[in-house]
Design a protein that fits this description.
alpha/beta, Rossmann fold, about 15% strand
């Protein structure tokens, strides 16, 4: 199925065509979008010509447009096709229909996702009548991309890889996961269909080793780790803006499973030791976390110290990351397989990373391997002394650059491409 094509200046003389199915894509400002974009932007270095099929996200509203005709963007090394969300013809929504849908493998049961599913199903069928592809990459979430890859394989015999940027429930890899009766039913149906859709995949890829182990056991299929990461030129063109206030910053979203009270205990100590000091929570969108931060601010009497800042553009978030004196990351204590994409951007900044509480898992290992900061349990006095050593210029982060470079998007996509080539060779 490979089409020969001469590429001047490259170390290969043909391009293989890959169809990437992804719900999230820029300008939607979430880590899932950046992961998909990294595949599109970097696979050409390894002999692949990507065609991305996604949705027409609007930067200002963060919503999908209602365009009727696909919008095609031709880039130097890849193509992006954007679809509108349309209107679903059969809206099976509600408790009864949710049960019916689950029984047939339809797990994306909001009105918008049902509409998007219909749009992309129709488009994929049309494009496969017009073009041939050597590989399909389906990125979860939503679930329907997994099903589409399985269908394409059964209909056209095109090999596929399923990429999981997350699991359907973040608690699944936790040793203390205790699902309710309804959750056990949900887990049974989703697990059953994931096994079916993964059965003929070349392999599965996901963001951490514990996730890969979980997927291998669930799907009885090879799973590899392709972490999130950062672009090698992420901070290109940005300069540190000097200011007279010492800032500990958390940049981006976080969730109720992440405990932040240790930082407030540290803040209470530091406000007596540093004249101008702030703790900034930038871009918090979870309402429960906003309420918790507000309550902790009052409890620890940090009204003049804690700043909750609204969601900002990615460029502004990168500037805040670069300007921070310490970058804060609260790990999931009960789930050793979770780290968000933001921690990799923290790595790229070169600023010291404070992990508290620690997870005794992937986050602690990342900090240890890269020497990019320190992980702590609940010891506010010890953490405060560590922060003060940074404030006084007595402690300098000396990260291992060769370890950090492993986590560039370019390196992770290169690893992915090697695995695909090896799997395709075995298939032949």
């Amino acid at each position: 199925m490979c089409k020969k094509r001469l590429i001047l200046g490259a170390d290969y003389n043909y391009v293989k065509k890959i169809l990437i199915l992804t719900y999230h894509y820029p300008p939607l400002n979430v880590i899932a979008s950046i992961r998909a974009q990294a595949y599109a932007q970097n696979l050409h270095r390894h002999g692949w010509a990507p065609t991305v099929v996604t949705f027409d996200w609007q930067e200002r509203t963060g919503e999908i447009s209602t365009i009727e005709a696909p919008k095609v963007e031709e880039h130097e090394h890849y193509k992006v096709i954007r679809l509108g969300k349309g209107k679903p013809q059969n809206q099976y929504i509600g408790k009864f229909y949710t049960a019916v849908n689950y029984n047939t493998g339809v797990f994306d049961v909001t009105e918008e996702l049902l509409a998007c599913r219909e749009m992309i199903d129709t488009f994929v069928r049309n494009i496969l009548h017009q073009e041939t592809f050597d590989l399909v990459l389906g990125i979860y979430s939503p679930h329907f991309h997994l099903e589409q890859c399985h269908w394409i394989y059964s209909k056209y015999d095109i090999p596929y890889v399923l990429d999981f940027r997350d699991l359907w429930d973040i608690r699944l890899t936790s040793p203390v996961y205790s699902p309710t009766f309804k959750e056990r039913i949900r887990d049974f149906y989703i697990g059953t269909y994931w096994r079916k859709w993964a059965r003929n995949a070349l392999f599965l890829s996901t963001v951490s080793e514990p996730y890969a182990e979980y997927l291998e056991q669930l799907c009885m299929q090879t799973a590899v780790t392709i972490t999130n990461g950062f672009e090698a030129d992420l901070f290109k063109g940005l300069k540190v803006i000097e200011r007279d206030v010492f800032v500990i910053a958390h940049v981006g979203s976080f969730y109720p499973e992440q405990r932040v009270d240790t930082l407030f205990a540290v803040g209470k100590i530091l406000k007596e030791r540093i004249d101008k000091f702030e703790i900034r929570f930038i871009g918090v969108k979870n309402e429960e976390m906003k309420s918790r931060i507000g309550a902790l601010t009052a409890e620890y009497e940090l009204n003049e110290v804690v700043k909750i800042m609204p969601r900002i553009t990615r460029g502004e978030a990168l500037q805040e990351t670069l300007d921070a004196d310490v970058l804060y990351y609260p790990a999931w204590e009960t789930n050793t397989g979770v780290y968000s994409g933001k921690i990799f951007e923290y790595l790229a900044s070169g600023n010291p990373i404070l992990v508290a509480p620690r997870d005794n898992g992937v986050v602690d290992q990342l900090i240890e391997d890269t020497q990019a900061g320190a992980s702590f349990s609940d010891d506010p006095a010890l953490i405060s002394d560590w922060v003060m050593s940074i404030f006084h210029g007595e402690y300098y982060v000396d990260p291992k650059q060769h370890e950090i470079k492993i986590y560039t998007r370019e390196s992770q996509v290169a690893h992915f491409a090697r695995l695909v080539d090896e799997a395709l060779e075995k298939r032949e």
